[in-house]
Amino acid sequence: MTGQESYDVVVVGGGGSGAPLAARLSEDAGRRVLLLEAGPAPVCAAGFPAELLEAGTIRGADPAHPQNWAFDSHLTPTRPYSVARGRILGGSTTTNGGYFVRARRADLDDWAASGNEQWGWAECLPFWRALESDEQFGPDALHGDSGPMPVSRVLPGHPVTAAFSAASAQAGFRAEPDKNGDETEGHGPLPMNVRDGVRWNTGLAYLLPALGRPNLEVRGGSTVRRVLFTGTLAVGVEFADQAGAVHAVRAREVVLAAGAVLSPQLLLVSGVGPRAELERLGIEVVADSPGVGAGFSDHPQVQLAWRPRPGVPLGAAEGRAMESALNATVALDDPGGRGLLAPPAHGRSDRGEHAGRPHPHAVGRGGELLAEVEVLPMLKPMGTLLSGRDEPGAPLVFLVAVQNPGSRGRIRLTSADPAARPAIDYDYLASPADRARMRAAVRLAARVAEAPAFAEVSTGLELDAAVRADDDALDAWVAATLGTALHLSGSARMGPDDDPGAVVDQWGRVRGVSGLRVADTSILPAVPRRGPAATAVLVGERIAAFLRAE
């Protein structure tokens, strides 16, 4: 091991949270900040691969792309899946679809009510406003116009978008013109971190403008292997460079912002986690923390394919892959719900609604089971989005996701070797409730797709109506085609002192040790009801503000 450089703060990971965190911390000239990023760390916009800036594709999500971590996982015991996470400056904000929707007010207030008072809507709103430059709504009481992250919507939109909005209204859903506002859910334009066809990642928005500061150092190709401790005090990190040489750096404060897969893995290999698991692998226990890697949540998702009519264009303004979304809540025991809460098939076991805390929006005030659903109409075939190549005749899809899943997953070490990939088990569809939610989501999307307005652009859904109407057949289709929205959250969640599963406090400080924090979607108590990219940026901003205040 070589090197014993010393910094005030070492930030591990330059993604959706880490880039804002490091940039904000370096605004204080007296604080020396080192950011270690495992992937490339371009010093200018031209240094990013062109396909990762192009808003009209998601080529970085291809498992073969070199800037994709592509973690092996299981969504169910029989459904393997590759989990895409960005491995470049900007992290997954560089490789995702550009969706930039805030967590709902109810999400934040639920987190505050569970003992994280710093994360309520009123406390976070100034940071939402400060991080964005909203082209349609800023500046006003809810939005900003001078922050690093551009936020824009396309109006009036693509013919598919117009038909989808009209069909959503015909299906009985209200309009939601501002999905980053404080309004009732419905259908409306999708806020995206896109400007002039470019996907603005947090590297572009936050770090590149800060690179001239003498107190900020950014190193790409630096894979952190573990946190270094003296007793229970974090004193630095060990990392490997691109040549495989191992180095150590010292720091007064270490902040893990490596994402909701790698941050818990780093805690575990460093000796912070469930005692029995660590001892089984021969890892010295620094702090017994049973919540590390446990109880994460994500949005289970399927692709509902449909055929566009001849002449319907593919792609949209600025080459965007999507422009709008429908968010809606269904009560599953509603008598008009077409059997959405039918009893499970014979022989199924119900392992319970979740393996941890329930999602705060799983049950309505009257005790009815709820399905919160998001439907995203994609404007290009999925194969085109992943490869950039045209696919004449290929169907388009709705991405249909449950936003309040009951299932909870776990991340476990497979080895004490820091280079070994972890095991990731989502435990989707384990309960009858989550199977009912997925049926409700598909049927809700089909209801919109079969509204008269959508027939102007569509020749119909590929999933047969008879399958959609039969609970067992639909369950089988979902199980065979299931994906995930790649919104993994809560793998090292925050909570109050009396919460035994909480890994960090509301300031991001890891319990049982000192000098160590986590700052990414790992710490969220549950996956937000909207995709978490914007919330990841909020986390970076908030943890930076906590550190600066101290």
Structure description:
The structure is a single chain. By secondary structure, this protein is α/β, with parallel strands linked by helices. It has two domains: 1-150 and 190-295 and 488-550, FAD/NAD(P)-binding domain; 159-182 and 300-404 and 429-481, Cholesterol Oxidase, domain 2 (2-Layer Sandwich). The chain is 23% helix and 23% strand. The chain has 13 helices and 25 strands. It has helices at residues 18-25, 50-53, 105-113, 121-131, 159-170, 202-207, 259-269, 275-280, 382-387, 432-449, 465-469, 471-481, 533-549; strands at residues 2-12, 33-36, 71-76, 79-83, 132-134, 149-151, 187-189, 194-195, 198-199, 216-219, 223-230, 233-240, 246-256, 272-273, 287-288, 294-296, 300-308, 324-331, 370-377, 396-402, 409-412, 423-425, 458-461, 483-484, 516-518. Strands 1, 2, 10, 11, 12, 13 and 25 form a seven-stranded mixed β-sheet that branches. Strands 7, 17, 18, 19, 20, 23 and 24 form a seven-stranded antiparallel β-sheet that branches. Helix 1 (18-25) runs parallel beside helix 13 and helix 10 crosses helix 12.
